[in-house]
Amino acid sequence: MPMNKIRVRVADWLKDNAEIRRIRxxxxxxxxxVPPELEWDSDDDGAVHFLAFEGDFPIGTARLLPSGEIxxxxxxxxxxxxxxxxxxxxxxxxxxxxxGQTRQFLSAQVYAAPFYERLGFKVVSDEFLEVGxxxxxxxxxD
Length: 142
Description:
This protein has 142 residues and is α+β, with helices and mostly antiparallel strands. Helix content is 31%, strand content 32%. It has helices at residues 17-31, 36-39, 43-46, 84-98, 113-118, and strands at residues 6-11, 48-54, 57-64, 70-75, 104-109, 122-123, 128-130, 133-140. The radius of gyration is 14 Å and the shape is globular. The model has no long low-confidence stretch (mean pLDDT 95). GO terms for molecular function: acyltransferase activity, transferring groups other than amino-acyl groups. Pfam families: Acetyltransf_10 (PF13673).
């Protein structure tokens, strides 16, 4: 069965809340055992959210904070390895550039650092633990 085209759009935190929550709960809370009280924070209200779709089905999400910090990048397990993450990140980076933010930063899980390096991010910290998972800080742009 051929894959439908992957597309990404800016999401509405209120209108798209159930879909964003479904993806992040599956990836971070169920798969990675992040405590729910750490997954959901007050930053969600002021963030720009993104949803990736295969056809009409939401399969990935990410958020962009006003500071230029990118986070909560997540793709449902069955759709990994299909460049969904690339499509999401390209959309997020395009949005930051549209806003005149030439520098983007994020905390990456260490295993995912090579993925972000391909997109132009550089590791700028030692490893540290966040919710029990090794992370590094990464920056892209000036």
